[in-house]
Amino acid sequence: MGAVKGALSLFGGTLRDLAPIVLIVAFFQIAVIRQPVDNLTEIAIGFVFVLIGLAIFVRGLEMALFPIGEALAEAFVRKGSLFWLLLFSFALGFGTTIAEPALIAVSKEASEVMVAAGVIDPGPGSAVGFARALRYTVAVSVGVALVIGVFRILKGWPVQWLVIGGYAIVVGLTAIAPEEIIGIAYDSGGVTTSTITVPLVTALGVGLASMIKGRNPMIEGFGLIAFASLMPIIFVLIFGIVVHAWS
Amino acid sequence: MTLVSDLMRTLAATVLDVTPIATILLGFQLGVLRQKIANLRRVLIGSVYVVLGLGFFLFGLEHALFPLGKVMATQLTDPAFVGGGRPTAELAWYDYYWTYVFAFTIGFATTIAEPALIAVALKAREVSGGTVGSWGLRIAVALGVAVSLAVGSFRIVTGTPLYLYMIAGYVIVVVQTLYAPRMIVPLAYDSGGVTTSTVTVPLVAALGLGLASTVPGRSPLLDGFGMIALASLFPMITVMGYAQISEWMENRRPRANDRDAASEEGSSR
To answer: I need a labelling partner for A13 at 20 to 30 A (CA). Which of A53, A161, B4, B135 fits?
Structure first.
């Protein structure tokens, strides 16, 4: 009985999370598209894996990712070394972004756009070089974002001044950046924050804000992700301006 | 049998994706912090859950939601479906209504299932002591993504420049920041970044690409971008809006019921 109850509580929440997707896909298939779906068994199997995977992931989130983030925050505060904390923040941002599959896909696509727009040579070498340079630009920008974000938690600066200031820079850069890079730059802000980074970084920020006297975890603890989405836009716009000026 | 080898491949890829994070964490733990980890066993089991769970989740998505979603995106943006036989050039923006409805609903549904958002919502509920409900936040963010995908589709169909929408959105964010409850602002800014990850991005890409390659005069390379950007912007607006509406309702209630007001004042700091 206990096992059944445990499984129900584990999967019940996940089932509710996934219900909207099933309903909407079913509605469009049955009422709008009205075409038979092939591989129904494969889709059903896939769905079961989505269900199990999400349920296990959420469990692991509470068992591992949150405690790790909090423990790190505590350990760094106890160590009291600003240098190591900021170096760690940079490494976390850079290291998790450089290997991000979504970013690899977007930068490859972006290099194709640049070739099509005639900004870079159609040669395979320069396209690959462009994609790699873009990836490093984004990864460095996320590293810088976490450094600024963590520093801001320590100082207690209000997040809105930094973020709104950042967006003002984005608007200014948009006016002078080459047109082809704008969509890529704006999108690169969204793809950097992955499923494993977000819980870790959030727990780190909240942990730091709760450890430091005079900081409210609700106000100073959140905001790291916002920097990690904003900074790549600025860096990629600058990158586009530089590449454009060069060629 | 191919399913099994596929599953193994996805799990291996997940392990590979996690490697840089694990290396950094381990490196700092062993090289810099040198402290004993509390509940090491539990953390290790939890890490296995994270990798296994994410691997299963991705494998399932690749076999169920992504193929289905991509086919649907292609079918719903197909000029033959949209126009019902009329030439593509004659189609007006409103002929794409099913595309907008699909973009809206699928944006909402995939965001509800986004693991990164679940994580932030759990943390927000914990930190706020339950004031920010995890469902309230998730529904607010999901509505933001839903609106942004519908608007993004409209933008691709009409061919209006992305920056106009982005700048208009930023202006709304700035104005809302001035009036929204101070406590929600950082969380609202964060929710812009967490929305677009594992589940939403591939579907959004399929939708953008489908539209940009069928609407006349659009280039999939140039106009396919931008959906993710809008999906990172609009949730900030809806989350701050959600807090503003909750605050407004809180303020209205005491007038209706004096006893409630008295007890609330007593409990709030």
So the answer is: B4
